[in-house]
Design a protein that fits this description.
Two copies of one chain form a homodimer.
Chain A (H helix, E strand, L loop, with lengths): L1 H11 L23 E2 L11 E3 L11 E3 L2 E2 L16 H18 L6 E4 L5 H8 L28 E13 L2 E13 L2 E5 L6 E5 L2 H20 L9 E7 L10 E8 L10 E2 L2 E6 L10 H15 L5 E11 L2 E11 L4 H18 L6 E7 L2 E8 L7 E4 L4
Parallel strand pairs in A: 7-10, 15-16
Antiparallel strand pairs in A: 1-2, 2-3, 3-4, 5-6, 6-7, 8-9, 10-11, 11-12, 13-14, 14-15, 16-17, 17-18
Keywords (chains A, B): Signal
Organism (chains A, B): Levilactobacillus paucivorans
Protein name (chains A, B): CamS family sex pheromone protein
Chain lengths: ~400, ~400
């Protein structure tokens, strides 16, 4: 079933991994600092390599080969996780980048989509272990359909990210991060097209299972000659359930030195995601943030006669707020109303929302995004943009 | 039919014109420069007046009364135009702001949504003249259903914008702009729920009709005591047809001095909207812009294995480009792909797109907007933002 669903998704996303080989006039994009390099010792066969350019110091540059973005070798496979909760997908990938930044500095390393684990490899790993698939990282099907007796699918997604360094005008692999996403709830069907049932997986059980799998993954990766001698970071992510209004979080990561074949130790991560306004009976790690948000929300909701919702996703590290994504849904408004509203939000956000962390505010209507504001962690004022058309 | 449709729209948009009277703690938003004023000679009954704050010098600040945005008295009515081509709506309103900026400086004037023409007044004006509605600005129904013999509905929308100045801590009306939107195509039905037919209205015929109507509108406005002695700008807009990928344009405007009851002269506007890539057989006012866009498009389309569309709306004044809204539609991509793509766009947009005019680039997938870039006219680099979630 799982396999069936995953394959459908893969098909739907059309993995066009093979990069077209049409050579392009690359010098055309030469405005980038350090962005034109030959790939390897003068080999013009593979075409030249470029970098995407860096928007801010906090972002990695990406790799372009022969004018095409170097897409992941297992592109689409890890996207299987978007079946239920679309937040998980963005959260898993950008969370992997954040974990990687702890180890691979954005000043020194260049980001490349995973090139070493192929689509079929990752698919087999994500499947259950079976006679036909002895590399499956998920447990054998024990035949039970009972939520508590069956073996759940623990590992829902696995993704590779490569970190390159530049030397003598050549990019070489200098680090790899592998993300392993474990389910908090395994959704399954007893019969095709039937009702969906759930097996809950505790945080502890998921983490323990993923740690064991991480060891296996590390050993297998070391068997590839290109990966034998690079540092490999493995990060474990816990997926949010399908009804969650925010994605999952990373629970732990391990740094494995070049050549290491067993994971020695894990660094625990105290990430927690919260949705504001906090549901009754629940609480935010920091009550000041919750009341800041409530003040903001009530100010903003009074602006128009009708405003359908002000919510936010907040991420914490322990009790410390890391950032906030605010979403405002409006009924239809005129362009002048959106302009005025956005100006007002600029003041209200600065006045009420927590300081010192990155925050963005997105204003959407049924016609899509109307305007948006953002402030980086070090800034005081929110920058804003109102979407317009001619 | 027209009336029926318009009324439905009005209903759908729920005109909640009456402002709630709950007084709010306004000092809470006092961070604005010049943003707290009492409205009038110490009258605390009506509550205090605030401004929204100004994002840039090029934008007007808006008026907030008692914590609520001062919405238009005819809110929703002019929205009837969104029935067919949603671009018209934004284009009409932001175009009115642009025409107003020629007359009422954003440094001196504050924007207020129209407060003098009520919803029912505007509705009657937009209807056909008839026994029950002698104020209708559209011609009588002559009974014909033939596209060429019937009297078309010329005027599709009418909107008022107020421009205030501040003196002794008090805002007072110092100018009004009225936009009159004429159809290029009048869509009508011969029977309810029947097929839609079209009466085409030439640019010249639409302009002539609107100029006559403008005179009537000016006279009627002067009958209101508050509008007797303020400058009134009347601007004539030509709606794009429903199948257009860009909105309409303003054809002309007139500046009428305080007290003037007839429109003396009109200033023609050479606005033209173009969609890039230009359709075969058509041409852009400036072929350099067209080839710039084509270069940009082909560079960008090579980035990913599949990219569904790169288009742009461009606005010209005569042969001079005024700005561009670029839209890129992607298939689903992963978050890291969107980050890299946006970095790449930052370079490619700077390299290929025309300089010296405001440009923004919006990247959307079926999940909505993924990232966006923008550059003001005086800037060299594009600022970018990738939408993310936790």
């Amino acid at each position: 079933m799982k396999t069936f669903r995953r394959k459908q998704v893969v098909k739907r996303l059309r993995i066009l991994i093979a990069l077209a080989t049409v050579p392009l006039f690359l010098a055309a994009c030469g405005n980038l600092s350090s962005s034109n390099m030959s790939s390897g010792s003068g080999s013009s066969k593979t075409g030249s390599t470029q970098l995407t350019g860096q928007s801010t110091d906090g972002d990695y540059e990406g790799v372009i080969k022969s004018g095409h973005y170097q897409t992941s070798k297992s592109r689409g496979v890890t996207n299987s996780q978007d079946s239920g909760n679309t937040y998980n997908l963005k959260s898993f990938e950008s969370g992997m980048l954040n974990v990687s930044k702890k180890v691979f500095s954005t000043k020194k390393y260049v980001f490349q989509e995973g090139q070493y684990l192929s689509s079929s490899t990752v698919q087999n790993w994500l499947d259950r272990q079976s006679k036909s698939n002895d590399t499956g990282l998920n447990p054998k099907d024990n035949g039970s359909k009972s939520p508590d007796k069956r073996n759940p699918v623990y590992i829902q997604a696995l993704e590779e990210q490569d970190y390159m360094t530049q030397k003598n005008n050549k990019l070489s692999l200098s680090g790899v991060t592998v993300g392993i996403a474990v389910n908090s709830v395994d959704y399954y069907k007893k019969e095709q097209y039937g009702a969906t049932y759930e097996t809950k997986i505790s945080k502890a059980a998921g983490l323990a299972y993923a740690k064991k799998a991480a060891n296996t993954v590390l050993q297998r990766m070391r068997q590839k000659s290109a990966l034998k001698n690079v540092p490999i970071v493995i990060a474990i992510y816990r997926q949010a359930s399908n009804d969650s209004l925010v994605g999952g979080t990373f629970m732990a990561y391990s740094q494995n030195k070049a050549g290491a074949t067993t994971v020695k130790d894990w660094t625990a991560l105290g990430q927690k995601n919260v949705v504001f306004p906090v549901e009754s009976g629940q609480s935010a790690p920091n009550s000041n943030d919750a009341s800041s948000f409530t003040n903001f929300k009530s100010q903003v909701e009074n602006f128009f006669p009708n405003l359908s919702g002000v919510t936010a996703q907040a991420q914490y590290d322990g009790n410390t707020l890391q950032g906030m994504h605010v979403n405002i849904n409006t009924q239809f408004y005129s362009q002048t109303e959106i302009i005025s509203f956005t100006q007002y939000l600029q003041t209200a956000a600065q006045k009420y929302l927590p300081t010192g962390v990155p925050i963005d505010v997105k204003v959407s209507s049924t016609d899509g995004v109307q305007s948006y504001l953002s402030r980086a962690s070090g800034e005081k004022k929110f920058a804003s943009h109102v979407f317009n058309s001619y």
